[in-house]
Amino acid sequence: MNIKSTNRFALICFTIAAVCLSGLSAVRAQTTDSAEIVKISTKQRESIESVVHDYLLKNPSIIREALQALEMRERRQQQEKVAQTLRSFKKEIFFDPGSPVLGNPNGDVTLVVFFDYNCGYCKQTLPALAELIENDPQLRIVYKEYPIMGQASQVAAQAAMASTKQGKYAQFHDALMKAETIDEDSVKTISEGLGINYATLKKDMGDPELNAAILRNLNLANSLGIGGTPSYIVGNQIIPGAIDTVSLTRLIAFERSQYVKPRPVGKAVGGLK
Fold it and tell me: What is this structure's pTM?
């Protein structure tokens, strides 16, 4: 039994004993002799401890059941805490005009993705997201540039965001995700290959509004307790780590069943002007 389980076991035993003792205290409260109360309570406490000990030995399954109930309650509390946090940042998460949007901008379900272009797991999930967009015409995907893996990631995020001004975010994003190495040279090569004006792109990468949008993503992730990539948000859930197409599809289907429809803002690739 690990430390966490041991602590929970102790809590369960304490709770059982406390309930019994509270009953005795209520009965004895009618007496005026406080010394007698202490004396009787001590005797009764020893008796209760013995009863609890014997009962748990004879019925060990109750420990497992109690632990399961406690874990379920803690899980519900954590889920509600996450849901409350997401509700508090709803506008920043789903409707930030600086976050590019792919798929259907008027879709009935929104999937939010925090990613870094140097993240291997993010690269692995690229086909899954492409498949979702292709197979689900009602899916709206919000891309949160979250460069946390060094200067090269920052450059890539700035370049990708700047590409929205030339209407090339989707293509540029895919190309960066597929690139083995990311630096200024690879950014230039990718840009030219997609017909993007690199000089204009470089200028737009320094746009204060663009960089403010990236900073908002970093601050938002911190507020939500997101510390790694990829991370996803669907409805009232935060899903850390890479996830396959089937699991994502199930999460989206569940959210759709809740009849929650976002109110999209701006163009299909965000609102950087």
Answer: 0.70
